[in-house]
């Protein structure tokens, strides 16, 4: 009877540990042997009977079984020594270095990142997206008291870039009263902070996010997968994404251990319908096109750092040729409309300047290294903040863009409340070239002005395409934004609208329709083009 009770207690402990910890039943995953060791410890505890003889003496009424100590010893050996010999970088440095795969050499990062309109530049970061999401959620008190916002993930939906977060249960009893799921998700445009949506139905059908991290029992997303065929598979990076129709899914990365008990590497994804729980397994190659992220950011960070750390093997005490990533990884989009993890690389021990930049395909892990010296993200942030140091604004994480074929960091400058107050552009090749403004257009004008004045400092390969135009003004109008005057005008036989300020030319404020002009501008994708020079020929002729 006593042995039966001990067995029951051991089974209960084992069930609870497995139910809540969900260990992967496969070689290389350390959670399982650790749980078995804990269970063995409880088995020793439950099968041991002691009697207190007096204050100084205790005797065994029933000693623990020797088999339990043998099992515990074997498990300890497996937990300690197997990882030591199979995964230690001292013995496997080459394997760690090659885990990222082949790293191709790129010519210029501006060839990879497409020139972009300023209306498509990302001005909302994750922190601001959360503030805006909380605001729209707080506008509906009945809903806000029942749910909370999940983590925001950035995703391209059609041609637009959005931060997307699910609504999650805010506690056990909230889940108990609403087991069918939470009512939708929040979308925040990454390019327009006024575009915030609470999506609660698709095609006339209410959205119910049943499977999620804040649900319980079988509705918990990790347990749902574990109990439905993924006991032996490593799963990570549970990303909430929507397809092009707006239907919500969890995209979960499958991974394996490539170097003993280490070397995590993605092998595919599982797409889980957040409403019905339906699971579909995909290889990396066959992942749906709307899925942006297959490679977890943590995996790529570790693999890039290992690639730079073991460039000359493990025994490299002089740090010769060692590289490390800079601020972290940022999701960016390239010319091919694919998403990439972007980061700078700097020599070990040198923080201010980068020796190059890396783009890693977030789906296939195809990696390209651009050997171009320039500013790190931290240096660019410091340069932007220094421009407005009296305001004590803080910079967002810089996002790399191709501005008129100039590789440029773009960031927002925020106050202590996390609200965007200004914008900044910093040339990646030279962080002393900075433009700031109260609007993105004002910032672009400022950046181009500074860039053109210091162009001789930059390599000729980064110079933008300029065009000269001789024409006649057909319409002109001024517009005041944030206390600054801009003059918009059109020119005969040219379809674009041009804009400039009195900083470009003192002739702009007094120019009129019919004046002959010579202007120069950068060729880009903008509908409204900033002029870099303005010369009113009619006015000059009148003054002669």
Main attributes of the structure:
6-stranded mixed sheet, single chain, 26% helix, 544 residues, elongated, alpha+beta, 34% strand, 5-stranded antiparallel sheet
> How large is the count of helical segments?
12
Rounded to the nearest angstrom, the radius of gyration is 30 Å
The pLDDT mean sits at 88
Strand content: 25-35%
Which structural class do you get from the secondary structure elements? alpha+beta
Molecular shape: elongated
Q: What is the β-strand count?
A: 31
| Straight-line N-to-C gap | 116 Å
Uncertain segments are 456-463
Largest sheet: 6 strands, mixed
Level of helix content? 25-40%
What would you say this structure looks like, in words?
The structure is a single chain. The chain is of the alpha+beta class and 544 residues long. Helices cover 26% and strands 34% of the residues. The strands form eight sheets. Strands 3, 15, 16, 17, 19 and 20 form a six-stranded mixed sheet that branches. A hairpin with a 2-residue loop joins strand 9 and strand 10. The radius of gyration is 30 Å and the shape is elongated. About 1% of the residues have low confidence.
């Amino acid at each position: 009877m006593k042995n039966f009770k001990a067995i029951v207690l051991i089974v209960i402990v084992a069930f609870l540990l497995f139910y809540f910890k969900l260990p992967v039943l496969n070689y290389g995953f350390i959670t399982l042997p650790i749980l078995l060791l804990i269970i063995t410890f409880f088995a020793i505890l439950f099968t041991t009977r002691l009697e207190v003889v007096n204050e100084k003496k205790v005797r065994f009424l029933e000693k623990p079984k020797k088999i339990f100590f043998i099992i515990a010893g074997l498990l300890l050996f497996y937990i300690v020594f197997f990882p030591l010999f199979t995964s230690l970088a001292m013995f496997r440095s080459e394997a760690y270095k090659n885990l990222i795969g082949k790293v191709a050499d790129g010519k210029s990062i501006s060839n990879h990142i497409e020139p972009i309109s300023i209306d498509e530049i990302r001005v909302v970061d994750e922190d601001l997206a959360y503030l805006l999401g909380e605001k729209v959620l707080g506008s509906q008190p009945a809903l806000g008291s029942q749910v909370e916002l999940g983590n925001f993930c950035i995703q391209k939906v059609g041609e637009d870039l959005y931060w997307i977060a699910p609504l999650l249960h805010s506690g056990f009893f909230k889940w108990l009263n609403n087991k069918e799921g939470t009512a939708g998700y929040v979308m925040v445009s990454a390019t327009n902070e006024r575009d915030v949506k609470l999506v609660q139905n698709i095609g006339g059908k209410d959205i119910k996010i049943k499977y999620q991290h804040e649900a319980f029992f079988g509705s918990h997303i990790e347990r749902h997968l574990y109990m439905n065929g993924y006991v032996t598979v490593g799963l990570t990076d549970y990303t909430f994404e929507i397809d092009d129709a707006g239907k919500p899914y969890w995209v979960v990365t499958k991974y394996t251990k490539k170097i003993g008990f280490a070397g995590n590497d993605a092998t595919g994804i599982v797409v889980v319908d957040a409403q019905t729980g339906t699971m579909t397994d995909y290889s990396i190659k066959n992942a749906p096109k709307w899925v942006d992220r297959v490679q977890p950011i943590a995996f790529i960070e570790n693999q890039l750092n290992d690639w730079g750390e073991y460039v000359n093997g493990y025994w490299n005490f002089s740090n010769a040729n060692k590289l490390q990533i800079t601020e972290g990884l940022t999701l960016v989009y390239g010319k091919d409309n694919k998403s990439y993890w972007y980061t700078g690389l700097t020599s070990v021990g040198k923080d201010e300047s980068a020796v190059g930049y890396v783009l890693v395909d977030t789906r296939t892990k195809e990696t390209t290294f651009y050997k171009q010296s320039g500013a790190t993200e931290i240096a660019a942030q410091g340069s932007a903040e220094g421009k407005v140091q009296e305001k004590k604004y803080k910079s967002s994480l810089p996002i790399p863009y191709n501005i008129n074929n100039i590789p440029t960091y773009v960031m927002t400058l925020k106050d202590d409340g996390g609200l965007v107050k200004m914008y900044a552009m910093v040339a990646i090749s030279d962080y002393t070239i900075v433009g700031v403004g109260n609007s993105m257009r004002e910032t672009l004008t400022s950046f181009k002005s500074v860039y053109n004045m210091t162009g001789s400092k930059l390599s000729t390969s980064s110079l933008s395409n300029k065009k000269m135009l001789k024409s006649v003004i057909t319409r002109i109008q001024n517009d005041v934004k944030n206390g600054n005057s801009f003059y918009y005008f059109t020119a005969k036989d040219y379809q674009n609208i041009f804009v400039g300020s009195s900083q470009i030319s003192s002739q702009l404020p007094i120019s009129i329709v019919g004046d002959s002009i010579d202007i120069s501008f950068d060729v880009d994708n903008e509908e409204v083009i900033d002029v870099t020079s303005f010369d009113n020929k009619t006015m000059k002729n009148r003054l002669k």
